[in-house]
Amino acid sequence: MDCETGKLSPARGCRLGISTSHSVKRVCDRLVIFCFAFTSVAAALSHSAPARASETGNEVQHAIKLDAGQLLALAMRAQENGDAVTAEAAYRALFADPSVEMRSEARFRLANLLVKQDRLSEAAILLRAILDEQPQAQRVRLELAHVLDQLGDDAGARRALREAQAGGLPPDVARIVDRYSAALRAQKPLGASIDIALAPDSNINRATRSSTLGTVLGDFILDDDAKQRSGFGLALRGQAYARLPLNKTVNLFGRVSGSADLYRDSEFNDIAFAPTLGPELRSGADRISLEAGGLWHLFGGKTYSSAATLGLNYFHPLGRKAQMRGAAAVAFVNNRFNSLQDGRTYSVSLGYERALSSRAGAGVTLSVDRQALRDPAYSTWAGQAALFAYRETGPVTLVATANYGRLWADERLLLFPEARSDRPYRASLGATFRNFRIGTFAPFIRATYERNRSTVEIYDYRKVRTEMGVTRAF
Predict the structure, then answer these.
(1) Structure pTM?
(2) For the range 321-330, what are the long-range contacts, defined as Cβ-Cβ under 8 Å and sequence gap of 24 or more?
């Protein structure tokens, strides 16, 4: 075709530099893909409208004889020829194939194509979709770990490797995975994540139900502002980070983390954000990071407290299926509402996580906290044990957590007859539904029950919170 005159001219190509025969071939390939996809849709519709849809599907099938194997070959040929658009369309057309093996093959090949195009999030979603249907596809799990590593999700990549090892690998492959796990490091220089949820809450201010407060002077009557309030809010959780490699074993890592619970009554808005910066070091399979930064906590639109922070994090793999994490931090707190709560806080935690199978895992974290504040009555010791477990059931991931702790104050506040002594409990159950994903996000629902028993009535509360929102789909 002569681009200027519109007449056929086999000796000439368009000025775009594409030969006529090659262009026609691409058009034909895409037409074949469309017909195959239309046939698949017609076949699917035949379950609900057998008379009409099956006739339509039969007519198309008579017109073009094409099976899934031929379409896969067409996609592979297009990919080899550099026609990524045609290849992607063909692979996606195979997603509706009734054979799980054919669907998985198409998704895996398309995921590899997307990785080459640096469309890593889309690739991760396709690999996760394969594992939802074929959880024992260990090669796919290893590829997912590689993609998550490129995305900068170090924790997700390591979890995928542990799940692969728990699912069983040939000895030679296991040794290769060991070497990869030892060399694993987050590669993405920039990244961000966010969770958004609607959150009805029975006690947004963590206040007591009691109408009275027992003191050394007798029972005081509490006004409505000091008692439990329910609310329907918007919950936001997220972080953004940047990574600068300094050499082969050290990165400079900066991060901003934040959370917000926002309500119609803005006096209960609870917002916190924390920027940090520091070096990440690798020593063999171990990881050590040191971070310095700040923490700001706003309540009701006003700064409630601020702190300068210093933290140390340590990661160590334990065999092929487990890992240990340790953390220590110190903060210098400035309470803007009560100077008696100024001072230092210290925290230490140790966590253990293990993959139980290719689809399940569990972990435990033990922590100790110390608040050394200006007034001994506000100074406390606290300890906590936290358990968690997860299980993937098809495209649904279930996560359960349980926490129990104790807290003791150094002295009693003059107004109260006893020093503060708390026993907090917390349990939650959540589910993420990847089969209903929207782009790279999937809907989730989580229910949490929280109870704190305290010798000081004003700290004694209970709450039930539900979150319904979207999170990352892989």
Answers:
(1) 0.77
(2) 321/162, 321/165, 321/166, 321/354, 321/355, 322/162, 322/352, 322/353, 322/354, 322/355, 323/158, 323/162, 323/352, 323/353, 323/354, 324/350, 324/351, 324/352, 325/349, 325/350, 325/351, 325/353, 326/350, 326/351
